[in-house]
Design the sequence.
């Protein structure tokens, strides 16, 4: 089965920067699952996976505009430290998760005080050209329920 709109795709990824340094991988863990064609995945990745089949492995290079955007200079904010999620103690350079009206967002801690922290709202991967090694693990038709919810269920997807 090919990856088309309304299929659920499970895939493995290894993310590297232009220098070939590994930044992230899910290999060794559960494959990621998403519903294709519903904006659930980075657009550049969905584009690259379109038409691929189970078992295919390949690499793509995404310029910042196709990945997490360019880095913006004026995205520093001061927020209460209790709004930062992902660790108990914060140091400069650490990645935190914050909840915004647009959903969860990853930010970088610039300075952490006792009650307030300065954070850089740019995505940690903004401004970077990214190389993804991708492997399609499985492709299946989405269920009616998944289409109604707009996301994949089961292993690697939403659990609810
Ligand atoms: Zn659901």
Sequence:
């Amino acid at each position: 089965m090919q990856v088309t709109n309304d299929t659920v795709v499970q895939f493995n990824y290894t993310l590297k920067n232009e220098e070939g340094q590994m930044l992230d991988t899910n290999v060794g863990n559960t494959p990621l699952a998403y519903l294709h064609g519903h904006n659930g995945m980075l657009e550049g990745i969905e584009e690259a996976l379109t038409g691929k089949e189970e078992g295919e492995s390949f690499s793509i290079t995404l310029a910042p505009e196709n990945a997490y955007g360019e880095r913006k200079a004026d995205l520093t904010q001061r927020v209460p430290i209790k709004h930062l999620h992902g660790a108990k103690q914060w140091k400069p350079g650490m990645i935190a998760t914050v909840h915004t009206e647009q959903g969860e967002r990853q930010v970088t801690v610039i300075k952490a005080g006792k009650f307030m922290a300065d954070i850089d709202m740019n995505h940690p991967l903004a401004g970077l050209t990214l190389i993804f090694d991708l492997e399609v693990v499985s492709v299946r038709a989405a269920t009616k329920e998944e289409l109604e919810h707009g996301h994949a269920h089961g292993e690697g997807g939403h659990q609810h």
In short: The chain has two domains: 7-67+127-149, 76-120. Residues 149, 151, 153, 158, 160 surround zinc ion (CB under 6 Å). The helical segments are 43-49, 144-149.
